[in-house]
Design goal:
Distance between the termini: 49 Å
Number of domains: 2
Number of strands: 0
Strand content: under 5%
Shape: extended
Length: 220
């Protein structure tokens, strides 16, 4: 519910605080219609792609209810696209960015998992719990949120940090009396904020910067 309320209110608040310089664009609707007419109706492959995407979103959202792993949903979507010839193996093998994400982020997440296997996360949890023991839960929320934010500079990947530290900090906060929903939303908001503070830790951002660099070099 808080997420839905924020989804409805934040765009309006941003519009009031930072009003757009262009308030009206009467020709925009007609331009959109012209572009759609030029593109023509959706092809069969585009319809299959859209339907597959919606099914994958549904399965990802309800995966815990149906006990379907997220990885299985991803492989199912790729299999459907390959079987229907929407994609072929050349498309998959030629997507270097996807393979780089799989390899490098897999390594980073694996290294983050080793922190737990080797006992580093457990030791950190005991240390943090002892440090905030006896404090009121609002104070615990502020201190651990600040610590969670500062620690992101020690990780090369935001995904690796979330995999290693999010469950730890969430459990310590809840054990100290912080309301679970508030703790989860605070850590989630900080995780999103860290993506803006250090954007190169995000794979999509690095891919975007690489594309922009190629365009700039092409212009030069």
């Amino acid at each position: 519910m808080p997420g839905l309320v924020a989804l409805l209110l934040i765009p309006r608040v941003v519009q009031l605080v930072f009003p757009p310089t262009l308030q009206k664009m009467p020709e925009g609707k007609q331009n959109a219609k012209d572009q759609l007419a030029e593109m023509g109706p959706m092809s069969v492959q585009e319809k299959i792609m859209g339907a597959t995407f919606l099914v994958m979103l549904l399965l990802w959202s309800l995966g815990s209810f149906f006990s379907i792993p997220a990885t299985a949903v991803a492989f199912l979507g790729v299999s459907i696209l390959l079987a229907t010839r929407v994609l072929d193996w050349k498309d998959l093998s030629g997507n270097k960015a996807a393979w780089q994400t799989l390899i490098f982020f897999g390594i980073l997440v694996g290294m983050a998992g080793q922190l737990n296997t080797l006992g580093v996360i457990g030791w950190m949890g005991q240390t943090v719990s002892a440090a905030v023991g006896g404090m009121s839960w609002p104070m615990v929320l502020v201190i651990l949120s600040a610590l969670y934010f500062v620690l992101h500079y020690m990780f090369a990947s935001e995904l690796a940090q979330i995999a290693a530290l999010y469950p730890l900090f969430l459990s310590v906060m809840v054990a100290a009396g912080v309301p679970p929903v508030l703790a989860a939303l605070m850590l989630g908001a900080l995780s999103a904020l860290m993506g803006a503070m250090t954007p190169l830790r995000l794979r999509p951002r690095r891919a975007h910067l690489r594309i922009r660099l190629r365009e700039d070099l092409r212009v030069l």
